[in-house]
Amino acid sequence: MTSFAQLPDPVSPLSRQSAAQAFADILDGHASEEAIAEFLVALSIRGETSLEIAEAARALRERLIPITAPANAIDVCGTGGDGQHTLNVSTAVSLVVASCGVPVAKHGNRAASSKAGAADTLEALGLDMDRAGAQAEATLADLGICFLFAANHHPAMKRITPIRRRIGRRTIFNLMGPLANPAHVTRQLIGIARPDYAPVYAEALAQLGSEGALVVSGEEGLDEISGAGATVVVSIGEVTLPARITPEDAGVPRHPTSAIRGGDAAFNAVALRRLLLGEHGPYRDAVLLNAAAALVLSGTQSTLPDAAARAAEAIDRGDANALLDRWIAYA
């Protein structure tokens, strides 16, 4: 009979040592599935601390398969789970920002709560996921962009995925993706769907040694900068934005979130291609707004209006669309 390690009772916040050991036992298969499920649910009900989030991320980082990336590479992603089913904003932003000369190591996955995740939509556009994964380091160096498919880089998560599915509720692992980028980026634009939790999440990121990051949360519970209203922003390290921003701060008009409602991968792929071909409307404005923050984060632009204008130029000149074509054709 297998002897499993006992996980701590998370009724009270865990110490650094006990959190580190608990997540090592979970990821290394030293705890039973029942114990893991009970631990994760209890932690979620009580509310994870920044230390617990940081230690979980540290444990996942220690077990991932890494790639080498340029020192100035960034990531743009969200934790997901906002239930808004929007078009793929961060994926489009990654292409636009990379076409502006900022290397983007895009970390993502297939859909969990939405109909089309980043991997699903890129695949529908013609990107071969297996090839993109195998050549991620090369495309990042040669084209300035790559897609790091989470399943390829986090073997320790294989056992955890069915447990999370069985639990059927948000747990600490819903927060882990942006904190465990295989390219070890130190600058990130991260969207989280819980405005009140943004400071806790940002503190975890700071504990992990982030050089500069923006943790953003649309006040309606959106895991990106909202094109419909105000967004909570927590700045870390060398980059700063106001603690609350609106689309007008970047010179972008407002639109209701329903105006960028997405569909399945094929639907989202068509919308993304039309955006890159210059189509104006709510999707473009949401992308310009988020790309503006990413460009300020990268240090290549100093103000949101200037950064939004630079992103619009990259789209209108066809740079972002051409980058997507080169990426798809890369061999």
UniProtKB/TrEMBL annotation:
GO cellular component labels: cytosol
Family: In the C-terminal section; belongs to the anthranilate phosphoribosyltransferase family.
Recorded metabolic or biological pathway in which this protein acts: Amino-acid biosynthesis; L-tryptophan biosynthesis; L-tryptophan from chorismate: step 2/5
Protein purpose: Catalyzes the transfer of the phosphoribosyl group of 5-phosphorylribose-1-pyrophosphate (PRPP) to anthranilate to yield N-(5'-phosphoribosyl)-anthranilate (PRA).
Swiss-Prot/TrEMBL catalytic activity: N-(5-phospho-beta-D-ribosyl)anthranilate + diphosphate = 5-phospho-alpha-D-ribose 1-diphosphate + anthranilate
Residue numbers binding Mg(2+) 2: D223, E224
EC number: 2.4.2.18
Single Gene Ontology MF annotation: anthranilate phosphoribosyltransferase activity
InterPro entries recorded: Anthranilate_Pribosyl_Tfrase, Glycosyl_Trfase_fam3, Glycosyl_Trfase_fam3_N_dom, Glycosyl_Trfase_fam3_N_dom_sf, Nuc_phospho_transferase
Domain of life, per lineage: Bacteria
Comment on bound cofactor: Binds 2 magnesium ions per monomer.
Top EC category: transferase
Cofactor dependence: Mg(2+)
Domain Glycosyl transferase family 3 N-terminal residues, every copy: 13-63
GO process terms (BP): L-tryptophan biosynthetic process
SUPFAM superfamilies hit by this protein: Nucleoside phosphorylase/phosphoribosyltransferase catalytic domain, Nucleoside phosphorylase/phosphoribosyltransferase N-terminal domain
Subunit record text: Homodimer.
Annotated binding of Mg(2+) 1, by residue: S90, E224
Domain Glycosyl transferase family as annotated: residue spans: 72-320
Residues reported in the UniProt entry to bind anthranilate 1: G78, N109
Binding site for 5-phospho-alpha-D-ribose 1-diphosphate: 78, 81-82, 86, 88-91, 106-114, 118
Source organism of the structure: Sphingomonas palmae
Keyword annotations from UniProtKB, A to Z: Amino-acid biosynthesis, Aromatic amino acid biosynthesis, Glycosyltransferase, Magnesium, Metal-binding, Transferase, Tryptophan biosynthesis
PANTHER family, A to Z: ANTHRANILATE PHOSPHORIBOSYLTRANSFERASE
Descriptive protein name: Anthranilate phosphoribosyltransferase
Positions annotated to bind anthranilate 2: R164
